[in-house]
Specification:
There is one protein chain. This protein is mainly alpha-helical. The chain has one helix at residues 35-85.
């Protein structure tokens, strides 16, 4: 009463047909221009160079800032110690 009725399975075909896939011979890519690929390579190299220059400039700025802060700290310490001795 509560069991579902399953549809009958379709009969399996008795004859088997084999399909053969024939691939076309590879066409040489001599006719393709290489300019688009070269352009992408040039853009990638330019991007890497620009990123390298920017990162080097940031590193140099951080180094200069650290040196100037260290010099300012030495000068301030010298001034404070000189004022305490008097």
């Amino acid at each position: 009463m509560f069991r579902p009725k399953l549809p009958d399975a379709p009969p399996l075909p008795t004859t088997v047909t084999a399909q053969q896939h024939v691939q076309a011979p590879a066409v040489p890519s001599a006719g393709r221009p290489a300019a688009p690929y070269v352009g992408v390579g040039v853009v990638a190299v330019a991007a890497v160079v620009v990123v390298g220059v920017v990162l080097t400039a940031l590193l140099a700025a951080v180094a200069v800032t650290a040196v100037s802060v260290a010099i300012a700290a030495v000068v301030l310490r010298s001034l404070v110690n000189g004022a305490n001795r008097r």
